[in-house]
């Protein structure tokens, strides 16, 4: 299991001579790589194509309130408490006092979800969900708790998966899974104010044998469903961007923004980068390079010196887009509707709507994460112009929340379509639907170095799409560089040994 480098190598200080390393990308993977390599005694510089650090951690702060004003997480917004590497760095960087609860989908009884008869409150949805779920089963002779389990699992998958992906997975929650669950006492897992929901995360934690018998296509997706609906997810109170900014402040080497790498040439004894800065393009010869940018960006570059297997994984790795749209509202009107946090499954183009806590000055308003979509659903919104996109979300969400239509309620709008952003061309690697062996083979291929060029990023990890994966891969890359010996050095050492032995 990956661990922070001080837990692996002992005292700080490079093994052998200190190395000079250039890190491409100032997202969380690039910053952790630089941080750990410096702690080991190496010299590091970081170059970033955009004008910002943090990568796909992006906290948008609405004008008018300064640092204490309302903000929206347009990138990563939550951390499962079980992600020990992420929690380790939060503690090491002195951010423990920023950790607080993240309330997730269906965690508030007053939140909404759609049904064939219109929007229902979470607290009132169980009967309709069970009836609609049972209607699709060939055999309905299951215990009531089993049907409740199946109905909430189906609702969770429907809320998190893109519509097309859900349609393909819907039949996976069938007789085999329900037959197994039907023999288990589900009473301890009933939750909610009226005990009309099932705590799926607790159930699967207590019954790993059920998890292991899930269809292979459902396995990895179920992991994310359980993470996203867990009651032990946290956030950083002052914004997720405090994590990369605190990391950057601890790095001694230079972090240069506005330097876009447009070509990489891997040679036996160096890696040559072609860099565009404004209207000027220049080359830089590097001893070692760690590339942490998404493969969607990398494959648009001129790449030479890569072997064919590496080029194949760079071009074949699949990324899903994500689109987030946040409304700066005059007031937290949802609180008058009885909603204190969490999220609704809205359906339509909007998909998910989150109600961040209004921690600041009420006079500065509150933020509604009006729409969070992934996959093809995000593409559908991303293809619209910003004006069209905002209008679609406002129109659909006003059906559930008519307060949005009141004059002056929406003070501002901010959004990000990650699938159309040139620094990412996607939100995250998603390996849903793949069996474990294939996922691991792709991870190894993505992380495999090319001579002095190393790779990190969530796409190189066992936890794609999470901050944890980016950190895991960064630690792995730093560890590989620490122990890497260039081919020329190995040849020289072998020759020296041969002479000492008196052999040819």
UniProtKB/TrEMBL annotation:
It is an enzyme of class 1 (oxidoreductase). InterPro entries: Amino_oxidase, FAD/NAD-bd_sf, Flavin_amine_oxidase, Flavin_monoamine_oxidase. Keywords: Oxidoreductase. Its cofactor is FAD. Residues 28-481 form the Amine oxidase domain. Coiled coil: none annotated. Pfam families: Amino_oxidase. The keyword Oxidoreductase applies. The keyword Oxidoreductase applies. GO terms for molecular function: oxidoreductase activity. Its EC number is 1.-.-.-. It comes from the Bacteria. This is NAD(P)/FAD-dependent oxidoreductase. It comes from Streptomyces chengmaiensis. The lineage of its organism: Bacteria, Bacillati, Actinomycetota, Actinomycetes, Kitasatosporales.
